[in-house]
Specification:
The complex is a heterodimer of chains A (611) and B (293). By secondary structure, chain A is an alpha/beta fold. Chain A contains 26 helices and 12 strands. Helices cover 58% and strands 11% of the residues of chain A. Classes of the chains: A alpha/beta (611), B mainly alpha (293).
């Protein structure tokens, strides 16, 4: 395949550069600087995972860098362990700190991590300065050994460069694979919309902690490299909050989320102060002003600028020219849907199922303080049916959906899905038991492509873990192909074929609704919850939606629908449950509900009666 | 473990806690108004301390006039700050704004060092340096000034938000910008005033704490972080929570550094923060808020 040729080409270019660089750069000063910039690059790659991929702000990357440096330095100088053992220890020690710090702070969303990481940095400084028996205090640790390969000591910066370069290449390679894997997509889903990520089956806390720990591990690895090269000396003040901020600037300058960008940013800002020595006293000010300017004027960093240059666009087209074909091969699933063709001649009876109860709700209640949004609702949804939940605004429809899908914990009551009690479970756990949903106000992963959105819907039917994703193992590749096939099938089913590479939030409104539907369907739900799927659609789009709902139904998927469009509701529903003020006021087949006096008074008015 | 030492520590803790509370209030007001955590909040206390020291030491400005000038300066400072760090990014997600406030914070810290030098400066005391003997308990009079000033400010703030129309407009803006705009409230102006007020609270904190410690470029960072911890301990977004959280942390810190370890004094606030996040993430006064689906 040609893609392999191109990959080999890049590999060859990288190898030649690495081999030749120490021949051209002979000054130890510059070689040390290059090694330092590689150490920073690795720390920034890590920061890029937690910030760029997962969207969580960590302000302690220099502290993790320090944990790695100190762990390895202490183990090698005081216990005489080999430097290579120190490398693993540095990585795992930093990652462990990440896990311990991440668990309390990352179960919450928002800014807690940022502050907690600053606190971690301060505590680390205090330990490094005060625990002299372990860290030698403010004096720092001197004469840290160099790594050995066989009988060869890599003391010379030119020799150490090979270790540094190979590490950087392997880590970048792994990180790029990670970005395009199930795990990487879970990270990005959290960044884009944490609530939707959870509803699509991503255990958000778990993946946030994973991203943070991995990021810390990279930081520790970078620290190991710093300790065993250059001046072979470390002291507490190197690993300051300011250094964390510098690493942050490197990452956002390079382009948040871009792997190559992190390396470019780190290299540029390591070399820049050397060139701009005259700034000496004010260089932190220049950095700081730089952060603000980047945020305001080039939010996507250097990577963003490069991406939009004409030359890159042409290169990209060349690159995609035949690697695209390879991907489509996997997508040869049977085209089942007829949409958007002619209206299929479906009768609602076609999809009426076995009549077995799929979802049982008993005494469900949700109180917000004194407000009883939902107050003791019982209902049943039968397998294979389309059931609608209707009622005036504020009657508790969406609150019920939120409890069913795990976004709210019910105040009281039971929810049983196919025999399993799910009340109070986390959204991702409920999704993996076979319930998927869409949202009233669309919650897509806006910056990701259409295809990626649907791939994330497949999350709970795939298993590739962190290691498999980074190493790009054959099992992961095979699974990935399967996910893609399913995702492409779903896109075709809802009529979005050909839009795979479009950015999700660039789609017109109606198509965004369809994409949300495709994403939910990708998780192979038994029960699909739709929260006002027709809101904002025009007449033609609504008609197409009706069609689609019947087709979903014939696939054996049960639908629970909240909707205000009564024509649609009466048209598709087998059963209707009516709510008012958080209580059920009626229930039954559509024809009965239409005639029910109480329902007409409370909600329908006379309009539908006339229709 | 005699009671007078403990009471002295309570006084010191209440004083430090008041400082944290003032800065924490600034945090909460800005957060409620624009949903942004201002990472430069501590610098809102560092900058006025430098301004006040410079006025008093270099220009021999009398204390009262120094206070007035510093407060006015910080009011303007708050408006300029929001124009640079917040306004251009107001339509973006919280991350760019947070990063930009960090940037401005570092800029201010290093700017202060460039202008005033790296040496710690001492601020002239408005109060006598000899401790007052209150029934056998020796208390630094500055502590009493801090506690009293904080109480007066809190009283003023209560009056301002409860009784004045400007305060009501600011509250309305914080509740729902769209609605406030429809009612003819100049939202951008209200936000600017919120930043100005938050920055003036910082001025009070900076001038009050200056005489106890040396004025350094790093003083703000630590105060800011502990103030943030206070807001979480008290319940994020809650005004009484921020005040009580600050006072709680101030007192705990003094006792812990006396009875447990002086070297790790600055670590206790964060240890408490982590414990609160683990055990009661909504804080003492916070309500559990669920995002609307």
């Amino acid at each position: 395949m040609k893609t392999i040729m191109k990959n080999l080409l890049i590999l060859a270019a990288v190898v030649v550069t690495v081999l030749l660089l120490p021949r051209f750069v002979t000054s130890n000063y510059w070689l040390n600087l290059i090694n330092l910039s590689i150490s920073f690059s690795i720390a920034c790659l890590g920061l890029n995972i937690v910030l760029g991929f997962a969207g969580q702000l960590s302000l302690a990357q220099a502290a993790f860098w320090g944990v790695g440096a100190y762990t390895s330095a202490i183990l090698t100088t005081q216990l005489g362990l080999p430097v290579w053992a120190g490398m693993f220890a540095a990585f795992f020690m930093a990652a462990l700190c990440g896990v311990l710090l991440g668990i309390p702070t990352l179960k919450l969303s928002g800014h807690y991590l940022a502050m907690a990481t600053i606190g971690f940095g301060i505590i680390l400084q205090l330990i490094l300065v005060n625990e002299i028996w372990l860290t030698k205090g403010s004096d720092g640790i001197t004469t840290i050994p160099s790594p050995w390969i066989g009988s060869l000591e890599l003391k010379d910066p030119g020799a150490f460069f090979y270790v540094a370069a190979v590490s950087l290449i392997l880590l970048s390679w792994g990180t790029i694979h990670l970005k395009n894997s199930r795990v990487g997509r879970a990270f990005m889903a959290i960044r884009e919309n944490e609530m939707a990520a959870g509803a699509m089956g991503v255990d958000t806390t778990y993946y946030k902690v994973m991203a943070f720990a991995l990021s810390a591990g990279y930081g520790g690895f970078g620290g190991w490299m710093f300790a065993h090269s250059g001046s072979h000396y470390i002291s507490p003040d190197t690993f300051s909050f300011e250094q964390s901020v510098i690493l942050l600037v490197m990452t956002v300058l390079g382009g948040n989320g871009s792997v190559i960008g992190s390396i470019v940013g780190a290299t540029l800002l390591t070399m820049l102060p050397e060139v701009l020595r005259f700034l000496k006293d004010s260089y932190m000010m220049v950095y700081a002003a730089g952060i603000v300017a980047i945020m305001i004027f080039m939010p996507s960093g250097i990577a963003g600028l490069v991406k939009s240059m004409p030359l890159t666009l042409r290169l990209r087209t060349w690159w995609n020219a035949d690697s695209r074909g390879g991907r489509q091969v996997g997508g040869g699933a049977s085209p089942r849907g007829t949409y958007p063709g002619k209206k299929a001649a479906f009768q609602p009876e076609d999809c009426a199922g076995s009549g077995e109860v799929l979802l049982t709700v008993k005494g469900l209640a949700k109180h917000f303080g004194g407000l009883k949004a939902v107050d003791g609702v019982d209902m049943e949804v039968r397998r294979g049916e389309i059931q609608a939940l209707i009622g005036p605004n504020g009657s508790g429809k969406t609150t019920i959906l939120n409890m069913l899908s795990g976004l709210y914990v019910p105040t009281a009551g039971e929810i049983i899905l196919g025999g399993a009690a799910i009340a109070g479970k986390k959204p991702h756990a409920i999704t993996s038991l076979g319930m998927a949903r869409t949202f009233q106000n669309i919650r897509l992963f806006g910056e990701l492509t259409v295809l990626e959105n649907v791939l994330i819907g497949r999350h709970c039917h795939s298993r590739a873990g962190l290691l498999a994703s980074i190493l790009h193992l054959p099992s992961q590749k095979a699974e990935e192909a399967g996910i893609r096939a399913k995702a492409l099938e779903m896109l075709e089913f809802v009529g979005l074929k050909g839009k795979e590479d479009a950015q999700a939030n660039s789609l017109p409104y109606g198509q965004q609704r369809l994409l949300e539907l495709a994403r939910a369907l990708a998780s192979d739900p038994q029960l699909l919850l739709l929260d006002e799927p027709a809101a904002g659609l025009n007449a033609a789009e609504t008609e197409a939606l009706v069609d689609l709902l019947f087709q979903i139904c014939t696939r054996g998927i049960t639908i629970l629908l909240v909707e205000h469009d009564m024509n649609l509701v009466m048209n598709v529903s087998d059963h209707i449950t009516v709510l008012n003020f958080g209580r059920k006021i009626a229930e039954g087949p559509a024809e009965e509900i239409e005639k029910n006096r109480e329902v007409v008074d409370a909600y329908l008015g006379t309009e539908v009666g006339n229709a | 473990m005699d009671w007078s030492t403990n009471l002295q520590m309570v006084a010191a803790g209440l004083a430090m806690g008041s400082i944290y509370a003032l800065v924490a209030l600034g945090f909460v007001l800005i957060f409620n108004a624009v949903n942004v955590v201002n990472f430069a909040q501590g610098e809102f206390a560092m900058v006025p301390a430098f301004v006040a020291v410079w006025l008093m030491n270099s220009l021999n400005t009398p204390f009262a006039l120094t206070c007035v000038i510093t407060v006015v300066f910080m009011g303007i400072f708050g408006i300029v700050f929001q124009r640079i760090a917040y306004y251009p990014l107001r339509h973006r997600s919280f991350l760019p704004v947070v990063i930009s406030t960090i940037g401005v914070g570092i800029f201010l810290k290093n700017g202060a060092q460039l202008i005033f030098g790296a040496e710690p400066l001492s601020m002239p005391r408005p109060t006598s340096p000899t401790a007052l003997n209150i029934f056998g308990v020796f208390v630094d009079p500055q502590y009493i000034v801090i506690i009293l000033c904080t109480l007066i400010l809190l009283g003023f703030q209560y009056f301002f938000f409860e009784k004045t129309i400007l305060g009501k407009k600011m509250l309305a803006t914080a509740q729902d910008k769209q609605m406030a705009r429809l009612l003819g409230i100049p939202v951008a102006q209200m936000i600017a005033i919120t930043f100005a007020y938050s920055s003036i609270l910082g001025a009070a904190a900076g001038i009050l704490v200056g005489p106890i410690f040396f004025v350094t470029k790093d003083m703000g960072a630590m105060i800011g972080l502990k103030a943030f911890c206070s807001t979480i301990v008290g319940g994020f977004g809650s005004i009484p929570g921020a005040i009580l959280g600050g006072i709680f942390l101030g007192v705990i810190e003094v006792f812990a550094s006396y009875y447990i370890s002086t070297a790790y004094r600055d670590a206790f606030a964060f240890i408490i923060l982590i414990l609160v996040l683990l055990l009661r993430p909504q804080g003492f006064f916070g309500e559990k808020i669920a995002e609307k689906a």
